[in-house]
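Lay summary. Proteins are chains of building blocks that fold into shapes, and those shapes determine what they do. In this project we predict the shape from the chain. Here is one chain we studied, written as its sequence of building blocks.
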Amino acid sequence: MKTAVEIANDVQTGATTAVAQLDAAYVAIEARNAELNVFLHLDKEGARKIAQAIDARVAAGENIGPLAGVPIAIKDNLCQTGIPTTCSSKILEGWKPPYNATVIDRLVAAGAVPVGKTNLDEFAMGSSTENSAFGPTRNPLDPSRVPGGSSGGSAAAVAGDMTSISLGSDTGGSIRQPAAFCGIVGMKPTYGLVSRYGLIAFASSLDQIGPFSKTVMDSAVLLEAIAGHDPLDSTSLPEPSPSLVSHVNDGVAGKRIGLVKELYEGADESVINAVMGAVAALKEAGAQIVELSIPELRLGLSAYYLIAPAEASSNLARFDGVRFGLRVDAEDVTAMMEATRTAGFGAEVKRRIMLGTYALSAGYYDAYYGQALKVRTLTINAFQKAYAQVDMLIGATTPGVAFKFGAKSDPMEMYLNDVFTIPTNLAGDPAVSVSFGKGEENLPIGVQLLGPGRSEASLYAAARVLEIADGRS
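And here is the predicted shape, written in a compact code that computers can read:
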């Protein structure tokens, strides 16, 4: 499949049409979707109208934008007017939002064509897309294995050549981890760089929308298109979209890069070897490697699984059978709400709601939630101290390659899969996963680059060095 940049150029120059690209995307989707369960809904009629409008504008000599006619897959926790948006939960089955998420409007303004909504772990709670109420998504590289989560559908859409780009959301690693498992590029931007308006919340202080792509350049183009201040999101950074595309080929000469042992210790041998190979490639490209230890990062997982469920228990209180989605009738309002939530939420969502409600309850708030917030502050300070010494950090994205379905049936074992990605969410900083090397069964390994707030341009430049070194130029 061509890259998004190549498709946009071909559409803009008239070498192909947006409608032709859309038709090709739907052919690719229909060839494998029954097997992989990537898309929950396809907006064929709406997408065709957008594509036809683009072709008319090209014919009139207009410059469409950096994503002219490029089909894009959308994670099903992002609102689109009149399009079913379920968060892969029975409790929202059939609900159609009356408005667009800001990122949807920005994509269309940049010329992209949203083709449909992708599967995810219910309410973005999971690391494998096994928790979806509508069945798991399978990894296109090996359908016996998971694609990662929670944005497994969006990652699989790109890895399976259904679309060249897609959008996901990252609360504790939900973009970077599936990107690693599927052998693609996944960026979690700085908190506030991309508007969360229209993203159905899981944990509001952690959630961030970001891009999936096959190439670093495509990721930079997509992020540049959706980033920038949005007055509809009170946490949006008050600044325009940063310049990213122009820095992708800046290289790493003179950069100080910290190799953090807490970001790879305990990983499989093949993963550690991939990280060391990436370090060698960056060093050869002119970077200075500094070995660091940030022991506070070991506390990240524990803090996350108090903060995120606490915020989720509050955010998901709105799904009560009264206003939208599923409603199970009962003898009174209280019984109706209980019956609706019992029937509508899956096991993992219920587990996290209960964890969060307990952590926020009288008598336990200070001992659990309060302590977790203190650990979060320690994590932020530890990262700041590290970034005073180096320009960015490097480590593993995941402890191993994509695992087989059912291999992590114990919740704690599943949670440990995000041990390297969670600290960045706690700090609100950006991080990118780029495929580098192969592990078990010739499956891809993800290497993670982390930087201080607003350092996406530098991270893309380093990721591009690794992309070239790995032979994917």
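What the prediction tells us: The radius of gyration is 21 Å.
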